[in-house]
Amino acid sequence: MEHANGPVTISDDLPTMPWPDLADFEEIAVPVAEAIKAERPPGVRTVAQEEHLLNDARRFLDRLTTSTAELERFGLNATVVERLQSSRVYYDAAVDAVRVRASFFWPLSRLLYLLKGIEELGCFGYDRWVARVGGQKVQIHGGNPLRSDEDLTSLMREVLSLTGVVGSRALSTATPIAESTFGSLLRVSVAVKPAVALASDIQMAVRFPQPTRFRFLDDFVREGMMPPGVAHFLESLVTGRCNILIAGGTGSGKTTMMRVLAGMIPRDDVVVSIEDGAELHLEEDRGDGQPWVLLLYAFTTVPDVTQSGGKQAGHESGNGGIGMRDLVKNALRVTPDRILLGEARGAEMVDMVQAMTTGHDGSMVTIHADSAALAINKARN
User: Measured between alpha carbons, how far is 121 from 131 in angstroms, rounded to an integer?
Assistant: First the structure.
């Protein structure tokens, strides 16, 4: 992968930027990050700790600005405190630097957390990275802290082992593909040989949940994405307990639409969400201090690590894994009022249709299809 002149570039047509670094914040970031790590219970490594890093960084920096003892503890001078107090830009940059340095993803966290507005990150080998930032693709070229595909693979094995990872948690020649969600932070699809057919030993794609500007149907109307009449019609479908099939291509906003519609479900309805990788996050604040769904059971698939019959995660192998169809059947046992199925792709649609017509009115399903007619055809098949 290395040439005499340095790492391979992806394309001369793409703009290039180096790996972002901590610039002048190493002096603050390293000792504060070590203090955050020291607070963790021995041997405990969780996704929740990673999610709390922003708050932890702010907490420690705020203590620095109010306590001389804390300043001396970290060996920092008064100039640092003055800049933290007087410059919001400097304070925010310091928070980011601490978060990056304390992250379980370090040094990959330099890409994950320092690229503002990052939407997707593609890896075609340890030294070939492309990020989508603000809707534009840019290749990351220069300043790479990783030294080999093996270096990156080892890092990914470590982070996949974190408690709280949803989806695949193993990455080996026996289980060469892992699709996993790290809480509200990101979703990773990573593959290693023998599943990788190119010269590199590892490839992966990282998706970042974007702060949605769509919380209510009125937001779609305001953005000019639907007329008021359609918004009223969709609201009537939810309150009238009609079953809804949400169709669209990849990245068309199916999950966003389901989340917004779910936020209109009556608060006393018991809802089950079923996904192959958690993306809905209906337990989170919808923007008004309330969760999208109040009474929620949230289920996700469990990989089959036995590799019985060569089947992969999320499919009904019958030996160790829990697939979508298993979850639909299990959902009926908790007597839900409504079932939300994220991305129907197989036989689970049969069970879902049966559930919709036997006392679970008002359920919703998303499906990959480019038109309403194709969606109905796929649902039938």
Answer: 4
Using DSSP's 3-state secondary structure scheme, residue 8 falls into coil
Beta pairing, strands 295-300 & 270-275: parallel
The beta strand positions in 96-183, using DSSP E, are 118-123, 129-133, 136-140, 166-167, 177-182
Tell me how long the chain is.
381
State pLDDT tens for residues 77-131: 788 888 888 999 999 999 999 999 999 999 999 999 999 888 899 999 999 999 9
Report the predicted TM-score, pTM, of the whole model to 2 decimal places.
0.71
> How is 18-54 classified by DSSP, letter by letter?
PPP--GGGHHHHHHHHHHHHHHSPTT--BHHHHHTHH
CB 128 within 8 A of CB 141: no
Interior/surface letters 166-195, b for 16+ CB within 10 angstroms, e for the rest: bbbbebeeebbbbbbbbbebbbbbbbbeee
Residue with tokens 């908790």: 334
Q: Which residues contact 272 (CB under 8 A, 6 or more apart)?
A: 296, 297, 298, 299, 331, 334, 336, 338, 339, 340
Residues of the chain with pLDDT under 50: 1-6, 306-319
